[in-house]
Amino acid sequence: MKLQRKNRLRALSFGAIAVSGALALTACGSDNNSGGNGGGASASANASNIKCDNAKGQLLASGSTAQQNAIGQWSKDFMAACSGVQINYKGVGSGAGIQDFLQGNTAFAGSDSSLKPDEVAQSKKVCKGGKAIDLPMVGGPIAVIYNLDGVDNLTLDAPTLAKIFDSKIKKWNDPAIAKLNPKAKLPNLAIQAYHRTEDSGTTDNFTKYLKAAAPSDWKYSGGKAWQAQGGQSAKGSSGVAAGVKQTNGSIAYDELSYAKGLQMAQLDTGASKPVALTTDSASKAIADAKIVGADGDLSLELNYATKAEGAWPIVLVTYEIACDKGNKADTLPATKAFLKYISSDDAQAGLANQSYAPLPKEIATKVQSAIDGLS
Questions:
Q1: What CATH number does the domain located at 2-140+318-372 have?
Q2: Which of 89, 119, 236, 341 has a Cα at 20 to 30 A from 268?
């Protein structure tokens, strides 16, 4: 037993391989969740399709927990195909991962947001003759979950959601909800709106959606901390899901992996018909994003107010951050080979099994081209 405990503790060290497990999509490294659906179905690709090139040695990386399940599975796949490589990804949060990278401690970082201008400037110290660039890699859908007896197909829109979460709409039979659901038998029941207790990237992305799609109804500045008054709070994605599951009349925002077994609302986005959340509909929203990075950087500007047909607008994207030039010679081959693999069709196709959204083909192609140019 002592040996098992020692090995378990050792597996939590920086050199441990991140393995897909209890962590589920959290939208931000500051989220500290437990529970959820870590995958079940494997995201493994055919090992014969993985090109090792000259990859060898140990590849250290750290950052966002939002993508940790995906990176964990991809690492296992890659190491199974490329026996000379050890990939060690530590989920420490986006901010800490970027700092590890800027201090020259890691080959790349994972982040749920693109680099800030001052971070790009700092990166020139570790990227000799170059700078850090953002490479989009994993899409993260955020669901609107609810628990309402007798109402199986609920449709909401951004203004109504904003009013619900700002305690302006307090009953399920409110006229605004009834207008969107003319066939539903809405009860005269108080709405219990759940939000995250702690700072959360999920909160940040959900409120970005409300700000963009319902600016007249959501007046808060947004961010990782919940700002509106009223409602119920719960800690972690699992706590929010548990609260909704136990409470008739409840509603919340949560990662798709935590929504399984719960009712999910559709969104009236202004498209021809309401949009249901799937990994495919989340990918369509990412496809409607604009690449706003320049000089090799591929940072995206998501269109939270998208009206594209079949596009679910509440989504986030994580990035792998690497040097465009000036990578260390001993880690460059492994960095390029691994990043090229995880942006490949095979690797991206497996994301849906873990409740992530694959990159649209057009964006993935640009990511692969940028990876080819790393030096």
A1: 3.40.190.10
A2: 236
Q: Which residues contact 169 (CB under 8 A, 6 or more apart)?
A: 160, 163, 176, 177, 191
Mean pLDDT of 222-234: 92
pLDDT at 85 over 80: yes
The helix, strand and coil proportions of the chain, stated in percent and rounded to the nearest 5, come to 35, 20, 50
3-state secondary structure 49-78: HCCCCCCCEEEEEEECCCCHHHHHHHHHHH
Q: 106 or 201: whose pLDDT is higher?
A: 106
List of E strands, the chain:
57-63, 85-91, 108-111, 132-147, 155-156, 192-196, 232-234, 250-255, 263-264, 266-267, 290-291, 300-301, 315-323
| Residue matched to tokens 């873990």 | 354
Q: Taking the domains of the chain in order of start, what are their residue ranges?
A: 2-140+318-372, 142-283
Is the C-alpha dihedral spanning 56, 66, 261, 19 positive or negative?
positive
Q: Does 3.40.50.720 match the CATH number of domain 142-283? A: no
Rg (CA), the chain: 21
Residue pair 237/33 in contact (Cβ under 8 Å)? The answer is yes
**Tens digits of residue pLDDT in 256-292:** 988 989 999 999 999 999 999 999 999 999 999 999 9
Tally Cβ neighbours within 10 Å of residue 285.
Answer: 26
- The 3-state DSSP class for residue 160 equals helix
Least confident of 30-44, 117-131, 168-182: 30-44
Measured at the CA of 250, the angle between CA 248 and CA 255, to 5 degrees, comes to: 125
Bridge partners of residue 51, in order along the sequence: none
Task: Reply yes or no on whether the pLDDT at 9 is more than 50.
Answer: no
Q: Is 46 exposed, middle or buried (0-12, 13-18, 19+ CB in 10 A)?
A: exposed
In Å, the largest CA–CA distance within the chain is: 66
Question: d(Cα 102, Cα 196) in Å, to the nearest integer?
Answer: 30
Judge whether 215 and 157 are in contact, CB under 8 Å. no
